[in-house]
Design brief:
Length: 653
Amino acid sequence: MPAHTTEPGPQPGDAAARDRLLDACFLGPYGENDALLERLVVEFLRDHVYWRRNFHPEDPPAIATDAAFAPDYRAFEARMRRELHQLSAALKKSVPFHSPRYIGHMASDLLLPGLVAQILTLPYNPNNVSEDAAPVTVDLEVEAGLQLARMVGYPHDPERDPCAFGHLTSGGTLANYQALRLALALKAFPVALRAAQVPGIALPEDDWQAFNLGPAGATALVVRWKAWLAAQTPREHRAWKARVEGERIERRGLVDFFAAHPQLKVPWVLAPVTAHYSWSKGMKLLGLGRDQLRLMPEREMRMDADALGSTLAACERARQPLLMAVGVFGTTEFGTVDPIDALVDARDAAQARGLGFSVHVDAAWGGYLSTLFRNPDGSLRPRAEVAQGFRQFPQPHVHAAAAALARTDSITIDPHKLGYLPYGAGAFLCRDHRAMALLAESADYVFHDQAPRGYRARYRNLGQFIPEGSKPGANAAAVYVTHKVLPLDHANFGRLPAQTVLSAEAFHAAAQAFAERIRAQARACVPFPPDSNLVCIALNPAGNRDIATANAFARRLHDRLRVDPGLPLQDRSFFGSVTTLRPQALGPAGMQRILDALGLAPASDGEGEDHLVILRHTLMNPYLIDRENGISYIDLYFDFLAGCVRALAEADG
Ligand SMILES: *Cc1c(COP(=O)(O)O)cnc(C)c1O
């Protein structure tokens, strides 16, 4: 047992704490489950070939059995082999995400069910743009959306409105963009209805009110409008639909729309300063402009609810409309969790005062942590129950945030992050699918009487609703099958994030012991307690008071932890990453607290560096504590880091 782990917790060699389920989930750091993976891949490849042969068994083979003897065939095969070998050789320089020595970015091993589902689906090559091209996997994508909706507490019964809807995207970036797109469509639609002067539907009195109905009010209006339209004669139906379409922001463009509605300004999006840069991309892509993305100050890396309150009040006074407020459930840099509960409370209060906007949660990283908070029957687990087996997790504000996910309007979750699935799998969820009608590319089809009846039938034409066109059905198969094998509750999938949280807690304790060990060479601290599974360490060489010198020290440490294409991988003992602590994210008091802990002098006004470079560790690898061999890679890491600190201090000494 490592001497410097002071608190009780799972230890290497602790057989009782060992989760045998996890043993079967991955190929493994050593490729331990290679035989299982190989059997499955070969089995389903053969299965695919039988399927080809049985399509029309009367059709003879089109490629002669002796084709392989022809010179062209052999030359092609030789070329192909050579290139494949080169590729395979080159890939040996890949980043070893599978290794417990990799604690850098948000990547790890792949779950076997998803990996195999993806490989087995690839030769069928389904295109989830529509059911015509993917009769099977489009349904799986819609089901995967419902699985994720259940995980976050959204209504998920397609037989009853409101029901959530979710689809996959290439990643969190596009899911965030989809959230912006949907929020804008919903916000502007009531304004278009007013402009078209549709009779027989009660409409808001003025443009400001129409623009501030909020997502629930606007969705209700979409429903009423569709019902009204359905009751018209075919001629009237066509005419009114065209008239309303002609007033929509998507048709007129931002310039014309806002010129036609001088009461309205281009709306803002509020996001915390730690928000991912995909929000900036989304604002540019949608044409709202990066300036309309307003970054909210934080306190201790979490959105400051008081600052949010005063911003909302200022918007009301200035009649500045808001499109959306974004909360982050698991920040990319620190794994911290915003007060989603305070965010939805603030939305409800603002709505009551006439300022409507959507709440979106960017849970690209933290989404799957929700499994820890769910019972198999879908109900929410009380905090005390979730906390069993952990040292500190979940902090009350983390539990409250997880519970409040159900009250948000839309959510981004990345199956290719904490879902341990291959890349190309993000997901967008909205709480009430009826809003999606506004995104339909051929509105004809959706609004027409002959629109497919029923939830599943409608979304088989996914291409109408998603930002992409053609997209892999293999991803959808991987996500769906994984969620079936490991249902999204604490008893099943939740055992994975539980392991990451245990690792993070062990890492946190080991980091504190490490700080004691290296006191002669450097001061070190964990700048803020982790909310989830990312842990950062701030360092400063002993006796130094200058931030720039401390940052140079951290960068030199990181030089030993980063991927260097010029060096063999095996040269690296561990992989870590860096990030920066900024006063805007910590608040002045928080920044001061950390500078004090490190013995650093604050940056003088406008002079020198005011941000602090820190080491960042993502603890998602399930094998950081190897109970089979009694090895803690966490302890090995700190031994290694202590050695680096000593070497650097001596070199500078
Ligand atoms: C990773 C991440 C994104 C972007 O997701 P991609 O899948 O890389 O496009 C957005 N937001 C957060 C919080 C993230 O962690």
